[in-house]
Write a structure and sequence with these properties.
Strand 1 and strand 2 form a beta hairpin. About 45% of the residues are buried. The chain has an 8-stranded mixed β-sheet. Strands 3-4 form a two-stranded parallel ribbon. Strands 11-12 form a two-stranded antiparallel sheet. Helix 1 runs parallel beside helix 2, helix 2 runs parallel beside helix 3 and helix 9 packs across helix 10. About 5% of the residues have low confidence. The longest helix is centred in the middle third of the chain and has 14 residues. It has 10 helices and 12 strands.
């Protein structure tokens, strides 16, 4: 299936945690219980914790089945994308169907806001990897960074994480994203550490702001700060290293393929080269043509240039 004709399946895209990730969108763009200051997708447009069938279940599964039948190299099928996947009411049926149609491991990226719901936890049990987020060790910092919708609290998120750990035998890879001056101080890290130890994830992935954030004052912490935090959190913590550009390959890449990527997330030329299995210069040529046509805009973030679909 041509990438530009897909509505719900995208990639594979490069992931610093998952390798090559074949993404599946279960909700429309930016439907989420959080409105995180650092989100690369921008501000949340539908701020909600209401579960319903946002995208038609059978259409999502049919498109994924067609993409898989066409042949795809991926390390994971990942429920992620444009919003919070656990908001989809048919999450359990979708997870079971994906596990039945492919041997590619299934990962679910979630902000954890709905893990307090027993139905959500049951739906996730067949997944091979669950990667929830936790960016704070107290209610004040949680609200400052994640800006949850009404009804979602720090305590409810932590309770959901603990319940998931008690019920789920698979791998839980907790991600913590640090914002300079907000949750990177020693006291904040120590509070986080206490919560993490109570939850008991298999690993703790440390991240910071890399792509252009929703709020300009959401700034990255330094590499030295991440190393200090990792040492403070203990042996389960690891810093997520940025992926490098593909050094091999070099097949032609179309403007449609590039636009399909950039509609989902801002990308550097290295990101595009890695995801599309082409040389960096090939991606650069296509991006340049799209910029000339006014179909791609660029934005600088911490010394890197990110491209996204839209008017220049």
């Amino acid at each position: 299936m041509n990438a530009t004709k897909r509505k719900y399946v995208y990639g594979p895209v490069p992931s610093r945690r998952l390798g090559r990730s074949l993404g599946v969108d279960l909700v429309p763009f930016k439907v989420c219980p959080f409105d995180c200051t650092y989100c690369q997708l921008g501000r949340t447009t539908s701020h909600t914790a209401r579960r319903r069938a946002y995208h038609p279940t059978e259409a999502v599964l049919a498109e994924l089945r067609e993409v898989l039948a066409g042949g795809v190299e991926a390390d994971y099928v990942t429920l992620s994308g444009s919003g919070e996947p656990t908001l989809h009411r048919d999450l359990g049926r979708i997870v079971e169907a994906i596990k039945a149609m492919t041997d590619i491991p299934l990962a679910v990226l979630t902000n954890g806001a709905l893990l307090g719901d027993p139905q959500v936890r049951r739906a996730l049990l067949p997944a091979d990897l669950i990667a929830p987020s936790l960016d704070a060790g107290d209610e004040t910092t949680f609200r400052r960074i994640n800006r949850p919708c009404e009804g979602v609290t720090f305590d409810s998120v932590v309770a959901g994480l603990k319940a998931l750990r008690a019920e789920y035998d698979g791998r839980i890879a907790l991600e913590v994203l640090f914002v300079a001056g907000v949750n990177d101080g020693d006291e904040e890290v120590d509070r986080l550490k206490a919560v993490i130890e109570a939850v008991g994830p298999d690993s703790v992935d440390l991240n910071t702001v890399t792509r252009p954030p929703a709020e300009s004052d959401a700034r990255p912490v330094t590499g030295a700060s991440l190393e200090r935090i990792a040492a403070r959190l203990g042996p389960e913590a690891r810093i997520i290293a940025a992926r490098t550009a593909a050094e091999t390959g070099g097949g032609a890449v179309s403007a449609e393929d590039v636009l399909a990527m950039l509609r989902r997330r801002p990308c550097t030329l290295d990101d595009l080269a890695d995801a599309l299995r082409c040389h960096r210069w090939e991606a650069a040529k296509v991006v340049a043509r799209l910029q000339e046509a006014g179909r791609v805009a660029d934005r600088r973030q911490d010394g890197r240039t990110y491209f996204q679909a839209g008017e220049a």
